[in-house]
Amino acid sequence: MVRTLVLIIALFALIVALWAIKDEKLSKKLKATITAFIIFGVGFAYFYESSTNVQNEKNIKILANFNQQKIIKCGEYNVSKAKFNYEFGTAVFMAKPEIAEIRGIIIPISKCEND
């Protein structure tokens, strides 16, 4: 909350500083264009970050359930710690090689559902 407030104040200060520049150096049209780009960029970044946070929270819950030995529904597969390993670098569940019927199966965590 405080971080968001500080960012809003900083954005406001940037826009005020931009508009404080004399019109001889930057025209009002250019100032308006720069302001629009700043607002668009900040808005895009905010919505992108929000959607990323939602996905990350979902992944953390799925991984917590996996670590608690619960069965997770991932497409047509039921993923459990007994049959799959989780690979952190690629965020996928990989079938354990000793289980012949599912050998070679790789499931991205984004395809899993959290119950």
From TrEMBL:
Transmembrane domains' residue ranges: 30-48
Stated name of the protein: Integral membrane protein
Organism: Campylobacter majalis
Top-rank lineage group of the source organism: Bacteria
Keyword line: Membrane, Transmembrane, Transmembrane helix
